[in-house]
C-alpha cells in the first residue's frame, strides 16, 4: 500500500470558487458592464439561450440564470480577440498544426471567409460569392453518396432543418451529428424500450420526486444549473443516490452562488445521501444487485399481503418481466460484487432508498451511454424504474442529461442518418422532390468510410470532428485524402488544420450576437434536455462585419449547389427565419403547431412525449423490460495489467474547447496530461506520484495506439479503473470500440496498459 494521499478538493461545487474560476480565465474581459448585461439576459425569455449545456431554462428563473461554465462559454464567444487574415498570413497551416488546442482557440473569433491555398500552405481571405461558387462547383462534381454533412449540437432548429433539407435535396442521408458520440445510445435504447427517443421528465417532476438515482453524469461541471433543482429537492427531503467511479464534487455538496448569505457563511448542502464508486462499466451489475434487493423485499412484503412492485403497471403496461426476474434471481451476489466493485450491503442500501420512495427519477449521462454495452446499461436502468411504475407518472421518469445546447432539437427536426425517423413523404410534398431513402452514415460509419477512401467531401456545421472522434492517428492521415472539406465555425480548431485538397473555413455569428437580416433582427430556437423549445435573440454586435449567420451560410452553399426549385426559397428563408419555422410546423405539426406564436413562452413550450402519457410506441406496444446477456458493460475481459480507462471532461473545458488547465473540483491543477490512478493500483504497478508514463492500447486488434507524457496522479478510483482527459486520450479509443446497437464510441471504458 502506498502512503500517497489521493488528490482531493475539500470545497463544495458552486460558491466563490466558481467566480474565481471565471475571473482566472478571462481576467479583465469578464466583469465589464457589457458582459454583465449579456449574462443577465442569458436563458431568459427574450434573451439568448446559453451555448453551453442543454439543461432546461425554467419559467421561474433566477436573477442570473447562468452558471460558472455557462458564463465561460458566453465569454469565450464574446472574446475581444480576433483571428484575422493577417494572422493566417503570418502562420502556415503546417506551423499551426504544432500548436495546442488551447492556443488555437485562444486566437479568438474568425473574422473572414477563408480558402486554403495549397501552393503556400496558408489560409487566405476569399469573398462569400467566390466561396459559395467554389463549394458549389466542388459539390456538383462529387458523387452525393460520398459527401458527409456533419453537425455539432449547437446550431438552431431553423439552421438544422435547412441543413438536413439541403443534404436530402443534394441526394443523401449522410447526416451524422455529435449526438452519435454521446446520447445516441439513449436515442436507440429509449426508442426501442419505451417508444420515445428522449427523456420523459418535465421540470416540475423534480419538485415532486422523493428519490433521484444518478448514473454517470457530472452535474457540477457539465450541467451546473441543475444543481439548483437538486439543492431544492434535497431540502424537501428527496434522497439522491449516486453511482460514479469518481467522487464528483458537485454531486457531493453545493454552495449556491446565487445565494449571498450562503456564499458568506460557506454553508454547503449535501447532495448525495449515498455515493457509490461503481467500477467503470460496472453499472449493469450494480443495477442487477439493486433489482435483486427489490425483488427480495417484494417477496417479503407479499408474504404479509403487501407489495413493493407495481404489478398492475407491470401487467398492463410492460413485457419481458418474467424473463428478467428469472435472470436476476439466478444471478450470483459474488459476481455482482466483483463486477460492480460494490459490496452487497451498499447495493442493498441504495435499493432500499428505491423501495421506500413513492416517486423516483433516474438521471444518467456519458457513464452509461459511452460503453460497449451501453444499450444494456440504459435497459437495466429502465428495468429498475419500470418495477415500480416510475415512468409516465408525475414526479417520476427517466432523464438523460443531454450534451450540446440544441443537440436533442436537431434530431427532432430531421438531422438523422436513419430515413425511417424522418417524415420523408411530407418533405416530398412540401418541396416537390424524391428524398433519398437509403440509410446514411452516422459518425462511426462516416469514419469507416473515410478510412476506406469512400468519402470525398465533408461539410461540418460547427464542431471539431477530427478531435472528437476515436482512432485519431489513422483518421487524421485518411482525412487528407478527401477532395473537399468545409468548416463552418466561430473559432479556429484542430479540424480546420487537417484539410482536404480544397478547403474552406467559414466564420459564423455566435448565438449571443445580433442576427440582422433583410426581414429585421432574427430569433432562433433550441430544444433543451427536457424537450422544451425556447426562442433565442442575440443582442451583441457581431465579432466582425464579414460574418454570416449559420442559416445564411447553408442557404448560400445550397443555392450554389442545387438546381433551382420553385418550392425552395433559400433567400426568403434567410430574410425571415419565421418562414422556416412555418415549414417546421408543417413538417411536424403535432410538436410544432403555432410555432411562431410560442417562441417566448416562459420556460419554453413542451413538445410532448408519448411515453410520459404511457403510450408506448414500441414494437410490442408496451414498455419493454430487457434481460442483459452480460454483467459487464465494457465488452472486454479482465486481464492482469489491463485497465479500464475513462476519458473525462475537466471543469475547464467544453468538449474540445479547452478554457484552461484547472479541474478545480477534482483537485487537478496546471496540466491536462495526467493519468489518474488509485494509490492501491499505483503500488501494484510500482508507480510513483509525478512519474511520467505512456498509455498503450490493449484492444488486441494489433493496432499500436499510444499516448505519451502522462503524469501519474493518485486519485480515488475503484479497482482496475484509471482516468484522464478527453480529447488528449482519444488516440487510444479504437474505432470499433463502440456501443453495439447505436455505435456510440465507448469512451468510458477503453482497454489500455500502462508503460512506465
Ligand atoms: N462545462 C461543460 N459542460 C458540458 C460539456 C463540457 O465539456 N463542459 N459537454 C457537454 C456535452 S456534449 C455532453 S454529452 C455532456 C456530458 O456530460 P456528462 O454526461 O456528465 O459526461 P462526462 O463528463 O464525460 O462523464 C460523466 C461522468 O461519468 C462518470 N463515469 C465514467 N465511467 C462511468 C461508468 O462506467 N459508470 C458510471 N456510473 N459513471 C461513469 C465520470 O466519472 C463522469 O463523472 O455535458 C455537456 N455540458
Ligand atoms: N474520448 C472521448 N471522446 C469524446 C467524448 C468523450 O467523453 N470522450 N465526448 C463526445 C461527445 S459527448 C461529443 S458531443 C463530441 C463533441 O464533438 P463536437 O461537437 O464536434 O466538438 P466541440 O468541441 O463541441 O466543437 C467545438 C468547436 O465548435 C465551434 N463552434 C463553437 N460555437 C459555434 C457556433 O455557434 N457555430 C458554429 N458553426 N461553430 C461553433 C468552434 O469552432 C469550436 O472549436 O465529442 C465526443 N468525443
Ligand atoms: Mo455530447
Briefly, what is this?
The chain is built from 30 helices and 33 strands. The chain is an alpha/beta fold and 756 residues long. It has four domains: 13-77, no CATH class; 90-180 and 411-601, Rossmann fold; 184-405, Dimethylsulfoxide Reductase, domain 2; 643-755, Barwin-like endoglucanases (Beta Barrel), CATH 2.40.40.
Which CATH class of the largest domain applies here? Answer: Alpha Beta
Strand order of the largest sheet: 5-4-17-16-15-6
**In total, how many domains does the architecture comprise?**
4
Bound molecules: ligand MGD, molybdenum atom
Mean pLDDT: 94
Task: Report on the architecture of this protein.
The protein has 4 domains: 13-77, no CATH class; 90-180 and 411-601, Rossmann fold; 184-405, 3-Layer(aba) Sandwich (Dimethylsulfoxide Reductase, domain 2), CATH 3.40.228; 643-755, Barwin-like endoglucanases (Beta Barrel). It contains 30 helices and 33 strands. Strands 5-4-17-16-15-6 form a 6-stranded mixed beta sheet. It has 756 residues and is α/β, with parallel strands linked by helices. A hairpin with a 4-residue loop joins strand 4 and strand 5.
